[in-house]
Design goal:
The protein is mainly β and about 90 residues long. It is built from one helix and six strands. It starts with a strand and ends with a helix.
Length: about 90
């Protein structure tokens, strides 16, 4: 995967692991991140495609203001995620 894989904690508290592509918004307040194949991190490290019951979409454009924090995933979680999205 060419983009960075990070754990994103949304302002709602929901943790996701996803490929992230940042870009410069055209106007202030426009979306500035693309989440690529985001998966929600559930109990005991279970990964579930984000919004899977609502859409088949695998890329989402978001505003970085909706993110509480971004951190590096542990090696085991990263490997699990990369194996799932192949």
């Amino acid at each position: 995967m060419d983009n960075q894989v990070k754990i994103i904690v949304l302002s709602s508290g929901k943790p996701l692991i996803s490929g992230i592509e940042e870009f410069v918004p055209q106007e202030l307040g426009d979306p500035d991140w693309k989440l690529i194949k985001p998966h929600e991190i559930l109990e005991e490290g279970i990964l579930q495609p984000w919004l899977q019951s609502e859409t088949d979409q695998t890329e989402f454009i978001i505003i970085s203001d909706t993110v509480l924090t971004v951190v590096e995933p542990k090696k085991e979680l990263l490997e699990k995620y990369l194996d799932i999205i192949k």
